[in-house]
Amino acid sequence: MKFIDIHTHKRIRDKVEVFSLNNVLVNENEVLSKDKYYSVGIHPWYVAEYKFDEYIDLFKSYFENKNVIAVGEIGLDKFKENFDLQIKYFEYQLKFAEENQLPVIIHCVKSFEEIIKILSEFNFKNPIIFHRYGGNSQITTRLLNFNSYFSFGDSALNEKSSSQRILKQIPLDRLFLETDDSNINLKEIYSKTAQLKEITLDNLLTAIIENYNKIFKNISNL
What we know:
By secondary structure, the protein is an alpha/beta fold. The chain has helices at residues 52-62, 83-99, 112-122, 137-143, 163-169, 186-197, 201-215, and strands at 3-8, 18-25, 37-41, 68-77, 104-109, 128-130, 148-152, 175-177.
């Protein structure tokens, strides 16, 4: 069985037992490889890099490649400037994902209320993966009302992090794991998560593969 890394910025050739969904930031103008799968999005940190129409055209051009199978990471971050512009890009990319029946990967920092409001207004039904999830128990309960999944990375290894407590709350059929931009070994994250969930590693692998196949059933089954 494969270890799925649902969100990574690292460009390391996948080992046989690892499947990575590689994140591309539109502003970096990355050339895509034929043997990898990608998510592509205009990140909230970089919304001021281009004029709106130019940025959108560049964003859309990536989706001509069949190996681009998700929109993201996109979202809102209150620690960064241009919050109104962040919302504009976020809403556009949600509409694009909806029109093209694509899942989205969301970056959210101190903005859960705004994101929940927007998702509700859109009546958004597509799969949503909250990467490096950092919501509390109450937010988690509300997000579970959407077609939401929750991805954890190196914070799962931190005994002092609230992520371990929240991770235990997440149903197995809504869970993903990731490396993001860290150098942590993915298998360490899986092993710790299996321990926290009090299940075997094989059961965790099976559950996450099922989650992946459920979301990407019309695009890229494992």
